[in-house]
Specification:
Elements: E1 5-9, H1 16-30, E2 37-41, H2 47-54, E3 59-63, H3 80-85, E4 90-93, H4 96-102, H5 106-118, E5 122-127, H6 131-135, H7 139-150, H8 156-159, E6 163-166, H9 180-197, H10 200-205, E7 207-211, H11 219-223, E8 230-233, H12 240-252
Parallel strand pairs: 1-2, 1-8, 2-3, 3-4, 4-5, 5-6, 6-7, 7-8
The structure holds phosphoenolpyruvate.
The site of phosphoenolpyruvate has 13 residues, from strand 8.
């Protein structure tokens, strides 16, 4: 039985002290939820300090991005071993904001996933269609291309270390979440793709999160869907009480 999985993407919010306060508040409330995989993803500058706060707790640390090279003349970039060194277990790869503002491609996402795995980080790979793509009936096609491109050359053994997050772009930060039925349709489809790429067992065991305006009042109906294993939460992860409420609802879903 998979644990429900709730990850908070803090995006470009909070200084070191703000991140430490938020992490402390979440830590204080999270102890009751050992059966949920809880992850927080602060900005790079706050990673090491938040790692200290989370040490010995049931909350894991994640980064929001990485570069695929290990080290070298890549001004402004941060590598997988550096994130490991800062205390990260997870790293978000291919978030739609990175695809939109920083030109990330499926090929780049694929290189980043491989780099993360090579250095023992667990990637959270984001996929999802824009509103225009959905309205023109292309949602599944877009997600399929992103999954196949991102996972190109990945072996089954490594798929067990990768979390997939379906995040329809039109639902991110808009307050309009996908309905449980809309999300479930895509999650089921992602599982079919994984079955084709790997095996039925790997597809069934894969952790597939939904992301896009997840709040305390909609997580229960989303996570009760068969193929939705948890959530990647943006805005609502910046308030400890809202994030903990989402974790609590996820814990109650099993
Ligand atoms: C996200 O950025 O991954 C996200 C899902 O944001 P929000 O929850 O604010 O829609």
């Amino acid at each position: 039985m998979k644990k429900p999985f709730i990850a908070g993407n803090w995006k470009m919010h909070n200084t070191i002290s703000g991140s430490v306060s938020l992490a402390n508040e979440i830590r204080r409330g999270a102890g009751d939820y050992e059966d949920v995989e809880i992850v927080v993803c602060p900005v790079f500058t706050a990673l090491a300090s938040v790692a200290d706060v989370l040490s010995g707790s049931n909350i894991a640390l994640g980064a929001q991005n990485l570069f695929w090279e290990e080290k070298g003349a890549f001004t402004g970039e941060v590598s997988a071993p550096m994130l490991k060194d800062a205390g990260c277990k997870y790293v978000i790869v291919g978030h739609s904001e990175r695809r939109k503002y920083f030109g990330e491609t499926d090929e780049g996402v694929n290189k980043k996933i491989k780099a993360a795995l090579r250095f023992g980080l667990l990637p959270i790979m984001c996929v999802g269609e824009t509103l225009e793509q959905r309205n023109s009936g292309k949602a599944l096609e877009v997600v399929s291309a992103q999954i196949k491109g991102g996972l190109s050359g990945i072996i089954g053994e490594d798929m067990a270390k990768i979390v997939v997050a379906y995040e329809p772009v039109w639902a991110i930060g808009t307050g309009v979440n996908a309905t449980p039925q809309q999300a479930e349709e895509v999650h089921r489809y992602i599982r079919e793709i994984l079955e084709g790429l790997f095996t039925t067992g790997i597809s069934r065991e894969a952790v597939i999160l939904y992301g896009g305006s997840v709040k305390p009042n909609n997580i229960a109906s989303l996570i009760q869907e068969k193929d939705i294993d948890g959530a990647l939460v943006g805005g609502a992860s910046l308030k400890a009480d809202a994030f903990l409420e989402i974790v609590k609802k996820a814990a109650e879903s099993v």
